[in-house]
Write a structure and sequence with these properties.
The complex is a heterodimer. By secondary structure, chain A is α/β, with parallel strands linked by helices. Chain A has a domain of 124 residues: Rossmann fold. In chain A, 32% of the residues lie in helices and 15% in strands. Chain A contains six helices and seven strands. In chain A, the strands form two sheets. Chain A has a five-stranded parallel β-sheet with strand order 2-1-3-5-7, sandwiched between helices. Chain A has a two-stranded antiparallel sheet with strand order 4-6. In chain A, helix 3 links the parallel strand 1 and strand 2. Chain A is globular. Chain B has two domains: 97 residues, no CATH class; 317 residues, Cytochrome-c3 Hydrogenase, chain B (Orthogonal Bundle), CATH 1.10.645.10. Chain B has 16 helices and 15 strands. In chain B, strand 9 and strand 10 form a beta hairpin. The longest helix of chain B has 29 residues. Chain B is globular. Classes of the chains: A alpha/beta, B alpha+beta. At the A-B interface, strand 1, helix 3 and helix 4 of A face helix 3, helix 4 and helix 7 of B.
Chain lengths: 189, 473
Amino acid sequence: MTSDRPRSASSPRPRRPTLFGLIRSGLPEPPPPTDDTLVRDLGLRVQERARQRLGRSLALRLVDAGSCNGCELELHALQNPFYDLERFGLRFVASPRHADVLLVTGAVTRNMREALERTYQAIPDPKWVVAVGDCPATGGLFSQSYACVGPASAVVPIDLTIPGCPPRPQDLLAGLLALLESNGKPGRR
Amino acid sequence: MAGETLAAGGYSLLALWGEPDCVHLSFWDAGSGAAAVMTLPCPEGRFPSIGRLHPPALRLERTIHDLFGLAAEESPDARPWLDHGVWETRFPLGKTSPSSGPTPYPFLPTEGEELHQVPVGPVHAGIIEPGHFRFTAAGETVVRLEERLGYVHRGVEGLLRGEDLEQAAALAARISGDTTAAYSSAFAQAVEAALDVEAPSLAHWLRALCVETERVANHLGDIGAICNDAAFARMHAFCSVLREKILRAADLCFGHRLMMDQIIPGGMRTVPPGEALRKLRELSEEITASLPGILQVYETTPSLQDRVVGTGVLSRALASQYASGGVIGRASGRLFDARCHLAYPPYSSLRFSVPVREEGDVDARISIRIREVEQSLDLIRQIIDGLPEGPASKPLPQERVAPGEGVALVEGFRGDLFAWVRLDERACVERCHFRDPSWFQWPLLEAVVYGNIIADFPLCNKSFNCSYSGHDL
């Protein structure tokens, strides 16, 4: 159905004192005066429910900063049906913008330093950084190389270290669950 | 001379690497079945470019320049490769000089109307190693892909200098984690050749057990992951279950899921308990029994076949020119497998076939992987059934050894990987070089993507599954 008549929605007619208008005027009542205590209580309850429903969910973003790809294999394994990482509310996301947690593998190479820094900066606060494996924790076998910066803590602040070469999937899972359940404040530098 | 023979297709290039004052070239002669190493001293800091005649050598020559400062004369591509300008010094393994800092990397030009570029990486969307891909596309169609690698260059060759064999073996095991057994095996064989000692027979058989188990685990992972990139998640889930079972069986046998640090110069670190071997053998039968189902689902799912057949075709000519090993070469009609062509022990005593296809597309690379899983599972059973008696390792001479060099070529799951080592009189590593199969596969990915749509790149890339860390070293 088409109509050539101009629509009037954008210029409402002045309200006339009809019966209909009289009934509607003054409604709804203005909101009651704000009770600060009530608002605070409501906020706390909402927060609690939100934490119950959403609090165990974290989005993970991996940066291989110089790994041998062993740690990547075991991070992949976390997604197989044996470990099924997503049932804990943990999942890998494609963009750092969607992430809460940065996982770092490898002794940070000089060639990857900038990419690691920029990925960290691209993750919105609050955020955590987890060093996965011995290399990002200590620099591993590669700490003395001309091509490596050393441990990941030289580039980004580390909140949790999961040791191993590579860590077994169970160790990765235990580390990530500990992060979920910890009350530690996320990194904010 | 060697360059001309390589260019004419007479020899296959195995490796080209440097030292501070010389370059080495290794090739394989398909006619005689012999491999050789040539050395050219470079007192002037220059050597004649092989890449000028034989393009597969180009990136190797750029690497020699980046690490040692030796220049390939008349090379058509003198851009840096591993050196991104952020190391403290240039030529870290040769005569060092202060770094001049990063400069913009000149990608190869593209000309044409309405072309656009898509830069990807080094940080990718998934759980992947870092590397940069520069696509130039006309609409959806890729007209050029250029790779830029080197992000995970850790300086392994530099770290290996002067290390004792134990520490060096640990480094070799961490060149590419998914190939740790094959790398350890190649290093051990090269060291044993340099010391002129023979590992015990049991060690050879257990090494092959590790390498075949590694091949099964990786191929299963790849078969599932390629299908997953065509949005067929069911295959991915199923294959990842089988892969996990294999890793758990490997853990039972060797105490490490990836079997890292188990293969050492002189033999094996551990001998798997009989009960663990029995479980691995049972699992190999279980997976063999499930392969027809995998093949049937793979071949009868139209949405999957539509994505993989005819996608990412690698010509036989390119596969031969680049002497591309492994699944990639064999899916394009290049029949080479170090296990049968060099017949190192124990493969000379084992029965297996090497599947070959001619199509060179993603489908051929998946199909070859499925057949190779079948062959490797059979090899695992033959090895477990035929394990010889005796010790699994032999003590190596520690001091006052005759300095010597050794080479090895081992068939890992990606193809033949080359190792060269020179030991000093304390039996420590003086120099060591590894050439990952990916060196001759990465450049072909650029060729394969040409004319495909960008959305098919993940399929092409995954069906190649080249190593970043093994290449960047």
